[in-house]
Amino acid sequence: xxxxxxxxxxxxxxxxxxxxxxxxxxxxxxxxxxxxxxxxxxxxxxxxxxxxxxxxxxxxxxxxxxxxxxxxxxxxxxxxxxxxxxxxxxxxxxxxxxxxxxxxxxxxxxxxxxxxxxxxxxxxxxxxxxxxxxxxxxxxxxxxxxxxxxxxxxxxxxxxxxxxxxxxxxxxxxxxxxxxxxxxxxxxxxxxxxxxxxxxxxxxxxxxxxxxxxxxxxxxxxxxxxxxxxxxxxxxxxxxxxxxxxxxxxxxxxxxxxxxxxxxxxxxxxxxxxxxxxxxxxxxxxxxxxxxxxxxxxxxxxxxxxxxxxxxxxxxxxxxxxxxxxxxxxxxxxxxxxx
Amino acid sequence: xxxxxxxxxxxxxxxxxxxxxxxxxxxxxxxxxxxxxxxxxxxxxxxxxxxxxxxxxxxxxxxxxxxxxxxxxxxxxxxxxxxxxxxxxxxxxxxxxxxxxxxxxxxxxxxxxxxxxxxxxxxxxxxxxxxxxxxxxxxxxxxxxxxxxxxxxxxxxxxx
Lengths: 339, 160
Hints:
The structure holds 2 protein chains of 2 kinds. Chain A is α+β, with helices and mostly antiparallel strands. Chain A has helices at about 25-30, 50-60, 95-105, 150-165, 205-210; strands at about 5-10, 35-40, 60-70, 75-80, 110, 140-145, 170-175, 190-195, 215-220, 225-230, 235-240, 240-245, 250-260, 275-280, 285-290, 295-300, 310-315, 320-325, 330-335. In chain A, β6 (about 140-145), α4 (about 150-165) and β7 (about 170-175) form a beta-alpha-beta unit. Chain B is elongated. The interface of A and B includes residues 47, 118 and 119 of A.
């Protein structure tokens, strides 16, 4: 089914914790910059939900109920929360049970800015929890905050995510602005586009399920998406899905699409020096210059040994190469054929 | 106006990353609850200590070398204490005030609640105030918490 890509901001704060904005102001700002959905993730409280219905009605921006567990050892944003779950008994070794409670109520949980400088400069911001099983972590902020200046902690988060993919885990990569204030001026913030089935009527469930399944891309500019299919077969696989691999010699036809027009007025990036890079578990697979006149790029991968592939868009800023968009992977899994 | 809890104390850097729990009893219920919370100092003004703590933190949490850390440490000023409050009533969570200000007044009633807190019936019975010590960076940090029930027209205590 055709995917519908929703521009989201998944990490926000209001007066209900330490934000400098009401929920109404936040949603109005989101609407002004072309976002269709935000998640309300105030620190350690869900009180902002009392304003949710009225704000959604007034602004047309969908608001996912959430909270950010802001603990002494790490920050965990939670989406689709129905009732308060407590963080105050957490220590670095008992996260697992607490996360189970979140999943039991249908919520999904992520790791915010895992490598942001921690206490006491930013209390609990650096992720120090022992994650017993990475399958229990639904998503990871590989990009966080304002996307200019020192990006070393974002780079470390991206590296962590890549190593988790190579270890066989599938946390969904997202961007979290950690939106406390400001917003309608054009500053380097990114967007998470979440790919939902076009027919979805329950946006809460559609967005959280899509994130859980890895159907998301992040970008500072153009909307980058990718599909693939096995040669001579009709079934098309989208971001977050798994292609069964019967034969390592099989050929995979990959189609990358770059939408240069969506939300164009909100991203001031030069499109003239872009490169498309396809990365897989074995490393860099493809490196192609991109021109706006050709927004669709097709190529074939032979001898498919990778367990995952993702597309990245890079450009040159101040003579340096910079990643401006990233998809979550399409996965490949060996399947035994019954003889 | 009826004081349900009054506590004051001194915290030290070794108290960082602790929760301190203060149970209190609401005997009558159905009157608005007021919480006054104050701590001081907020900022570390001893620049030598601030520099030491910031550099330690940057060494622990970043991959930057010593020269780079010495170049950038000042951009992390001011270094501050952070204490926050959260509240539970006999049936569960009633809210949290996770925000920087070191002087907070919280009101809770059936149809009103300060930002971060949940409005609803003020139930009779055992309540719990949790003081979360996210960071103490100064030599010591003094705090005061007062909880009282009553209408706003009641005589207020001297401001702390």
